[in-house]
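Sharing a chain and its predicted structure for anyone who wants a worked example. Both blocks are below, sequence first, tokens second.
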Amino acid sequence: MKPIRILLVDDHGLMRLGLATLMKYHKDLSVIGSADNGKAAIEQAKALKPDVIVMDLMMPVMDGVEATRQIHAEQPETKIMILTTFGTSADVARAVQAGAVAALMKDTPNDELLNAIRAIAAGEHVFSPEIRKTIAKDPDPPVLTERQKEILKFITSGLRNSDVARQLGISTDAVKQHLNAICNKLGAVNRAEAIAIALRKHLLKI
């Protein structure tokens, strides 16, 4: 059998070195590259086509959630494992929504970590108990109608309500009603916060 090809992503060099050293003594695992931020991870994933990516969450330039989302969208066959110190962070749940198939704590025993890598390479999902609780607590993102998404895109471009009304052939009052409904769904107090929440939850792309 060919070894599982692994990309390590963490902004701490010692963490990457420790993981690489651990895997070095297992013939079925092969570390083919590493990256210290999410943007570099995307580039490495494109170039190396790893079987598994072990991804940190909190990194400079681009975090693990966004890197996971982009890599999963372009290379769904690559399995992404989140390895984090912050098991109760809402970012863990967002990373799972973005496509991660595993999430473990950094203090996970070595044998468990290695077996989890083997498991996800074989198509399984692996989550530590603490992280399972975090994922269960995170609510599903709200569902916006196509018209609501359309209006959000317009106001993200800086258009006023009257401009949006003209673009869509509806009244200004109708635009206001849609914006109120959007804010209620997202729990936002104004249009700026609604845009920020929609972008964070990947309900809106710009």
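Comments welcome. The CA atoms of residues 13 and 58 lie 14 Å apart.
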